[in-house]
Amino acid sequence: MLLTIPDLLTAEQVADARQALDQAEWVDGRVTAGVQSTRAKDNEQLPEQHPVSRRLGDMILTALGHNALFISAALPSRVFPPLFNRYRGGHSFGTHVDNAIRQVAGTAHRIRTDLSATLFFSAPDEYDGGELQIEDTYGIHSVKLPAGHLVLYPASSLHHVQPVTRGVRVASFFWVQSMVRDDGERTLLFDLDSAVQRLNADVPNHPASVQLTGVYHNLVRRWAEVS
Fold first, then answer.
1. Which of the two residues, 177 and 42, has the higher pLDDT score?
2. Residue 68: pLDDT band by 50, 70, 90 thresholds?
3. Cβ–Cβ contacts within 10 Å for residue 122, how many?
4. End-to-end CA distance of the chain
5. Closest to 2 (Cα-Cα) out of 186, 146, 216
6. pLDDT value for 64
7. CA distance 166 to 90
8. Alpha-helical runs (H) found in the chain
9. What's the rounded mean pLDDT across residues 203-218?
10. Is the dihedral of CA 47, 52, 53, 54 positive or negative?
11. Across the chain, which distance is largest between two alpha carbons, in Å?
């Protein structure tokens, strides 16, 4: 499932983040790349322990925790602390797949990367190129979203970032370990949850709503892994 989550952050939060990010000191993005990704990655990254990275990461995690669409789609168990990257002057990221396991820097904690997420901090008209292109069985999907919007997609997907030929593309990226690791099962649960919510809105107190809610939770019981 590939899903856009609009307005995860407010315009004020985006403006505050951009001011902080534009003033921060960036490093070579290959510091967090795996062996395969190192050969494809050409961008800049904010150090993981940088005060700006930690402050804005906490802001993003708080927003995710209050976003019903994200929770319904991801069924999050753990979220990797958000990282930040910048593309400019021809920077790109060639086709790759994200590492299956990520270790949180400075800790013994690891997460399984079921879902990848990119949160845009640059408006589309601020730069040329820079599209996030995600491959699945239906072809290649090109993603270039307004600032404050997030895209969520299976971390098993091949994906790449097109060269930025004008301006600057600033974004946050991170991974989610879901309580339901299988993307097909997660998609079924999301579709069912969405349908129940529409039924409740269109026909309040319909008896089928209780039955369908029961089906949803029984499927979660069958598929979820809770530690």
1. 177
2. very high
3. 23
4. 24
5. 186
6. 98
7. 8
8. 11-23, 35-38, 51-65, 68-74, 183-202, 207-223
9. 95
10. positive
11. 58
User: What are 79-111's pLDDT values in tens digits?
Assistant: 999 999 999 999 999 999 999 999 998 888 999
Residue type, 58: D
Neighbours of 179 (CB within 10 A): 18
C-alpha 80/C-alpha 64 separation (Å) is 12
Strand-pair partners of 141: 134
For the chain, counts of helices (H) and of strands (E): 6, 16
Distance in angstroms (rounded) separating the CA atoms of residues 27 and 93: 15
Q: Residue 70 in contact with residue 64, Cβ under 8 Å?
A: yes
DSSP 8-state secondary structure symbol assigned to residue 93? E
Distance CA 117, CA 171 (A): 10
- C-alpha span between 115 and 17 (Å, rounded): 24
**Could you give the CA distance from residue 175 to residue 156 in angstroms, rounded to a whole number?**
11
**What tens digit of pLDDT does each residue of 126-166 get?**
999 999 999 988 899 999 999 999 999 999 999 999 999 99
Which value, to the nearest 10 degrees, does the dihedral of the CA atoms of residues 198, 201, 204, 208 take? 0
